[in-house]
Amino acid sequence: MIPQANRVYANAIAPARDHARPHAAARVRVDFAEVNRAALAVCLLVLGRILPGGKRDGQEYIAFNPRRADRHLGSFRINMRSGKWADFATGDRGGDLISLVAYTEDKSQVDAARLLARMLGVRS
Q1: What pLDDT band is residue 21 in, cutting at 50, 70 and 90?
Q2: DSSP letter at 105?
Q3: Residue 113 DSSP one-character state
Q4: Bigger pLDDT: 81 or 11?
Q5: Rounded to whole angstroms, how far apart are CA atoms 98 and 95?
Q6: How far is the C-alpha of 42 from the C-alpha of 62, rounded, in Å?
Q7: Rounded distance, CA 100 to CA 85, Å?
């Protein structure tokens, strides 16, 4: 079960620290390592949510690539121990689950980390 999966932290903006610009807000830094650790702890559940229709094959998750007209399982694989992933048909690849979310959702790494953190109930 994904802990606190529906909990959304609405406060993505921290109070401004610059007194010269009291209306300005500083973006909260994302702890990529913490988000990746939390995602790897429940990797199969995360993968099932972002890549439905896939299946486990040993320590890998095989899924359809949502970024192309993928009709057969096999070429899009994610290592569930490390989070590394690759589409061997296109050459697209990444080193962790945040980069996978960025790829599948067409988001920046920061936005993908925030999305994944909200999904897992982790303060990013």
Answers
A1: very low
A2: H
A3: H
A4: 81
A5: 8
A6: 16
A7: 7
Q: In whole angstroms, what is the distance from residue 111 CA to residue 91 CA?
A: 23
Retrieve residue 86's tokens.
């690759």
- 95 CB-near residues (< 8 Å, 6+ apart): 82, 83, 84
How far apart are the C-alpha atoms of 115 and 110, rounded to whole Å?
9
- Are 109 and 116 contacting, i.e. CB atoms less than 8 angstroms apart? no
| Inter-helix orientation angle 32-41/97-105, to 10° | 90
* H or E element in which residue 57 lies: strand 55-57
Instruction: Tell me the average pLDDT of the chain.
Output: 82
What domains are there in the chain, each with its CATH number? 13-120 (3.90.580.10)
Q: Which helix (H) or strand (E) holds 45?
A: helix 43-50
Element (H, E) at 32: helix 32-41
pLDDT beyond 60 at 33: yes
Q: List the beta bridge partners of residue 78.
A: 61, 85
Q: Are 73 and 64 in contact (CB under 8 A)?
A: yes
